[in-house]
Amino acid sequence: MFAAENGLRGDPRLQGISEAIRVVPHFPKKGIMFQDITTLLLNHKAFKDTVDIFVDRYRDMDISVVAGIEARGFMFGPSIALAIGAKFVPLRKPGKLPGERISESYVLEYGTDCLEMHVGAVQPGERAVVIDDLVATGGTLSAAIRLLERMDAKVVECGCVIGLPEVKGQNRLNGKPLYILVEPRELEDCC
């Protein structure tokens, strides 16, 4: 579900967030219109508005875990967790966590990858949201859901700053709701 469909239609914060995201053509390879959130992070108002919208959504949902996907989920997840009184759990690429961990592989458009989480980071029955910057195919979010559910956490929702209008990734989320702030921007007169 897009934020604009959930009571935020016409909210100027969404337009500000969208405009703060830089589109980089042909990165990391030809044909890709990369949605660069680093420019959003440089814009204090847009960054704050992004976090505030997620906080407003999750504040009263009895969330105890905010799981952020490496690396861009780390930029929003900790602030959301602090604001709603939840713990932040990093979901990392292989070899980055020092303790006992579990892992979950997933398929990308161009290969495979893996996410890892510390054993004991979540407890059975804890209510979790998964945060990332962008959803496309849903493979990464799906792996995050599987990791949390293997530890018997209840994944309430996945939240992303950017999502494709047709939200193809929604089909891979095992029925979990998906909350998206803005659609990807295109460059006018590009390429």
List keywords for this structure.
single chain, 191 residues, alpha/beta, Rossmann fold, five-stranded parallel β-sheet
Topology:
Blueprint: H1 12-20, E1 22-25, E2 33-36, H2 38-42, H3 44-58, E3 65-69, H4 73-84, E4 87-91, E5 101-108, E6 111-118, E7 127-135, H5 139-150, E8 154-163, E9 178-182
Helix pairs in contact: 1-3, 3-4
Provide a concise account of the structure shown.
The protein is α/β, with parallel strands linked by helices.
Task: Describe the structure in your own words.
- This protein is α/β, with parallel strands linked by helices.
- It has a single domain, classed as Rossmann fold (3-Layer(aba) Sandwich).
- Strands 4-3-7-8-9 form a five-stranded parallel beta sheet, sandwiched between helices. The chain has a two-stranded antiparallel sheet with strand order 1-2.
- Helix 1 packs across helix 3 and helix 3 crosses helix 4.
- The protein is globular and about 40 Å long.
- The mean pLDDT is about 90.
- Its EC number is 2.4.2.7.
- Pathway: Purine metabolism; AMP biosynthesis via salvage pathway; AMP from adenine: step 1/1.
- Homodimer.
Number of helices: 5
List the uncertain runs. Answer: none
Distance between the termini: 31 Å
Please state the CA-atom Rg, rounded to the nearest Å: 16 Å
Q: Give the strand line-up of the largest sheet.
A: 4-3-7-8-9
Number of strands: 9
CATH architecture: 3-Layer(aba) Sandwich
Class from secondary-structure proportions:
alpha/beta
Shape: globular
Number of domains: 1
What name does the CATH topology carry?
A: Rossmann fold
Q: Which series of helices and strands comes N to C?
A: HEEHHEHEEEEHEE
Strand content: 25-35%
pLDDT averaged residue by residue = 91
Q: What is the CATH domain class?
A: Alpha Beta
Helix content: 25-40%
* Major sheet details: 5 strands, parallel
